[in-house]
Amino acid sequence: MENIKIIIASDSIGETAELVARACVSQFNPKECKHEFLRYPYIESFENIDEVIQVAHDKNAIIVYTLVKPEIKTYMQQKIKEYNLQSIDIMGPLMNLLNESYDENPYNQPGRVHRLDDAYFKKIDAIEFAVKYDDGKDPKGLPKADIVLIGVSRTSKTPLSQYLAHKSYKVMNVPIVPEVTPPENLFEIDPSKCIALRISEEKLNRIRKQRLKQLGLGDSARYANEARIKEEISYFEDIVERIGCPVIDVSDKAIEETANDVIHLIEQQAK
Amino acid sequence: MENIKIIIASDSIGETAELVARACVSQFNPKECKHEFLRYPYIESFENIDEVIQVAHDKNAIIVYTLVKPEIKTYMQQKIKEYNLQSIDIMGPLMNLLNESYDENPYNQPGRVHRLDDAYFKKIDAIEFAVKYDDGKDPKGLPKADIVLIGVSRTSKTPLSQYLAHKSYKVMNVPIVPEVTPPENLFEIDPSKCIALRISEEKLNRIRKQRLKQLGLGDSARYANEARIKEEISYFEDIVERIGCPVIDVSDKAIEETANDVIHLIEQQAK
């Protein structure tokens, strides 16, 4: 069995290179194809490069890199050639195309994607908003939110809100439970910014049983009871009809996929 | 002034391709070098490819793609060649290297990086944990947390906790305010899992004045008052000394950069 070593080298933190590497290794059976990431962030000197090259040479590692400073990048490429190493330049090919298309030269400054600009602070505000207005805690968030998510318990409302917040949307989520009357202004907001998360009975049953097991409780508790689940889902459908909002089925989706659907719906309705 | 169109085409949601594209365009002056992303997620048929090719041809767009199904990818590459279009294959080069290194063939299934496996549920739990234990709300989270962040108000504790949660760390954050005695068990946890976020007086003053302006309040309020800031920072330093935990200066860092430092510290201490 092979254990491939992958060096993530970057003059910033290296998350772009790591995401590409993760997407690629996820295509291989993890039982047969082992991998190990070795992270080298903040590469800023020839000495840093020398260290990476040494490790790649010793461990027969693939170097996956994002480097924007020309002298650092050129040195890396020379050394890779000199030692005949395997490597992938993540940003280089697209940077070359953009360089041909734009008249202006690039900044060649590491970490510009993380700079503290308006977009950054908008994202930070969105993350704080989603934490503050999680779980319908304060109905005052409803008119301020870009997106309002509703759903029964265990439909991933909280992580989905956070994922959308990282894309700079202000998201509030409101749990739908038969015993709790939803805030009155949920029925007053623009229904096109409200998205209902639907889940199948079978799936909900499975998730909740799993949850009870995690919590060390038996699976006969009311929370995972089939009649109870039917009651909750039927109450949820009533609320959805009253609001008149679009619905996304989340039964077999990862939050990244549901988030993509939510953004698509919201952007379409905004047109 | 050029406005470059970049098509993000993927047989999954396309976030890997978009992150690479964002990192690249952020290297150009946004005032002079405009860009526009056109997203085509869930590419699964030749018809979907034909649509992308048509748009790329009509709008002179660069196609940045992540495609793992061989027949879909081959068709895309044929069409790109046929129409003489500009394109970047994000995963292809590394997939080729991995194919050479591993004996097994890849799955070639789109979206595997988002599959609902143990790692996925660990991440979801971490995100929910960070929301639940945000702002020191419940000291019971302290022994359960992988990382405990402490800091005065406006040191980005909440978004930083969320960012680390997306990397599957269970994070609790505790605000340090002179008027509020921190929970007693903050001094009982392993100090190596606690990280103090330090910020300079000048920076804190600037952030808080900005914050007050946003909230529509004057900047003379107690919150941004210099004597008050000195008092808060001095109290913070006392607490840090009592706990004996490592400190990270966050004054000029984006949360992604601070998160990288936190993970580095935590991983080092775990060794």
Automatic annotation (TrEMBL), chains A, B:
It catalyses: N(tele)-phospho-L-histidyl/L-threonyl-[pyruvate, phosphate dikinase] + ADP = N(tele)-phospho-L-histidyl/O-phospho-L-threonyl-[pyruvate, phosphate dikinase] + AMP + H(+); N(tele)-phospho-L-histidyl/O-phospho-L-threonyl-[pyruvate, phosphate dikinase] + phosphate + H(+) = N(tele)-phospho-L-histidyl/L-threonyl-[pyruvate, phosphate dikinase] + diphosphate. ADP binds at G151, V152, S153, R154, T155, S156, K157, T158. Keywords: Kinase, Nucleotide-binding, Pyruvate, Serine/threonine-protein kinase, Transferase. Signal peptide: none annotated. Its EC number is 2.7.11.32, 2.7.4.27. InterPro entries: Kinase-pyrophosphorylase (IPR005177), PPDK_reg (IPR026565). It holds the Pfam family Kinase-PPPase. The keyword Kinase applies. GO terms for molecular function: ADP binding; ATP binding; phosphotransferase activity, phosphate group as acceptor; protein serine/threonine kinase activity. It is an enzyme of class 2 (transferase). The keyword Cytoplasm does not apply. Bifunctional serine/threonine kinase and phosphorylase involved in the regulation of the pyruvate, phosphate dikinase (PPDK) by catalyzing its phosphorylation/dephosphorylation. Belongs to the pyruvate, phosphate/water dikinase regulatory protein family. PDRP subfamily. NCBIfam families: PRK05339.1 (NF003742). This is Putative pyruvate, phosphate dikinase regulatory protein. It comes from Staphylococcus devriesei. The lineage of its organism: Bacteria, Bacillati, Bacillota, Bacilli, Bacillales.
